[in-house]
Amino acid sequence: MIARMDTPRIITHYRTLRGLTIAQLATAAGVTARQISRYEEAEDAAQPTLPVAARIAEALDISLATLAGRGVPQIDVSGVWYSAWQTWMDDIERVEFERVTIEQEGTFLLVSGEADPNHTDTGSYGWTGEGRLLRDRNIAVWYAATDAGIASNGSFHLTLHSHGHYALGRWMGDSHDGINECGMGAIARSEAVAARALESIVHTVGTLKTWPDLSDIEFPPVKPS
What we know:
Elements lengths: L6 H11 L4 H8 L3 H8 L9 H11 L3 H4 L11 E11 L2 E14 L2 E6 L13 E8 L3 E8 L7 E8 L5 E10 L2 E11 L2 H11 L24
Antiparallel strand pairs: 1-2, 1-8, 2-3, 3-4, 4-5, 5-6, 6-7, 7-8
Helix pairs in contact: 2-3, 2-4
């Protein structure tokens, strides 16, 4: 998890994420490698002056607020998820299952989905998009088909359960069946959970007010932040 980081840990985290050595970051920020090492010390770290902090933040492509430990997400949604989407093909309702990969940098999300292997010959497609993690609770993403010959595109908004193992919501977009189609969706760390979650909400009309009863599923314990 990327949680409750202080400035030394933030510098180390984003420097590593960007693939920079201490010397490379020092050069980009106009300071010595020794200074960067002192800023990254776990105990009794030196604090950069405001001008130096601004150059470090610029070199790491983060904001000063993030460098100071403000606005850093409490949760990390990066990794492989499995999705279940309510969709239609020639007005016939079906469920598509996709493997979804999320790369997270702060609150920014780069998301890609693989075509459902059971429906590649009937309209399923790969897609990619960008989004944000909103207040450690919602995933909001726009997407478009990776194949230029497929016009489908749209957006989805999912709400994470408090334990973070699955999320529920809706998608909306331009699809094979019309100029504006929408349906329910779910993502989880396993395809089975995504399928169960979608099944429990797929016939919701209007506002989704409560979480489904998945009490029979044993989720892994939540890691301490």
